[in-house]
Amino acid sequence: MSPLNKSKYYIQVFICFSFFLLNALHLSAQSDSLRNLITVDSAIRIESPVITNNSAVDSVLLNHSPRKAAIRSAILPGWGQAYNKRYWKIPIIYGALGTTGAIFVFNLKTYRELRFAYRARVEASPPIRDSSNYNTLREFYRVVDINAIRTFRDEYRRNIDFSILFFLLFWGLNVVDATVDAHLRSFDVSPDLSFKFKPGYSEMARTTGISFIIGIK
Questions:
Q1: Where are the alpha helices (DSSP H) in 43-65?
Q2: Residue-level pLDDT, tens digit, the chain, 217 residues
Q3: If exposure means fewest CB atoms within 10 Å of the residue's CB, which of 30, 59, 185, 204 is most exposed?
Q4: Of 78, 106, 73, whose CA–CA distance to 93 is shortest?
Q5: Backbone angles phi, psi at 34, to 5 degrees
Q6: How far is 39 from 33, CA to CA, in rounded Å?
Q7: Number of Cα atoms under 13 Å in the Cβ half of residue 170
Q8: Using CA of residue 214, residue 29, residue 70, residue 176, what is the dihedral sign?
Q9: End-to-end CA gap in the chain
């Protein structure tokens, strides 16, 4: 397989993996939202209970800091997710970073190989005619057109920049995910939220009927 075909293959693999990652994160958000709705729905009852451990609940919410989650994910990918107890996200994060890292290494290695091959072909051409490096080249680089080698070299140089960019992008998404997830933990979906129906006269509507009363403690 030629270097150009290898590059296209790795780019296709990377794009497929990116779609898989984004789909997984989207499904995760939907799952969390559904879980919160179920929790709220389970808190609906006729009478609101007396909450005697509000200080403990507030302490848990205050101690879980989005800033800590962001800093930990910025230092070590997946650390913020572990802090949020979202352990299943860690393999996805390292899969994305590992894929982009492997593509970067491949692009860098191939770029250096193409750069050496192009220099060797130029040196072996008139008027220099130095074949010392040319004799060490693989057969592919000896028969392919020198302009094609230069085109491959320039393309892989751009691919190096793209692979670095995607690596930093996934690292940043890892920080954003940990921060947002930590913020969402502070949403109150506890049994303090309730509602009830009350038949009778409504002072607000100034009429008789069934009132829908929301209780928030």
A1: 54-63
A2: 555 555 555 565 556 555 555 555 544 544 454 444 444 444 444 344 444 445 544 555 557 889 999 999 999 999 999 999 999 999 999 999 999 999 999 999 999 999 999 999 998 888 878 888 888 898 889 889 999 999 999 999 999 999 999 999 999 999 999 999 998 876 655 555 555 666 767 666 677 766 666 655 5
A3: 204
A4: 78
A5: -65, -40
A6: 10
A7: 28
A8: negative
A9: 67
Task: With residue 8 as reference, give the H or E element that holds it.
Answer: helix 3-42
How large is the angle between the packed helices 3-42 and 89-124, nearest 10 degrees?
170
Tokens of 150: 């230069």
Chain Cα centroid distance, residue 75: 15
SS3 labels along 78-137: CHHHHHCCCCCHHHHHHHHHHHHHHHHHHHHHHHHHHHHHHHHHHHHCCCCCCCCCHHHC
Residue whose token pair is 């958000």: 29
Which pTM does this prediction carry? 0.60
- Which residue type, as a one-letter code, is found at position 32? D
Q: How far is CA 11 from the centre of its chain?
A: 18
C-alpha to C-alpha distance for 79 and 71, rounded to whole angstroms: 9
Token pair, residue 101, equals 């890292």
**How many residues are present in the chain?**
217
Burial class (CB in 10 A: 0-12, 13-18, 19+), 94: middle
Per the structure block, which two tokens stand in for 214? 């929301």
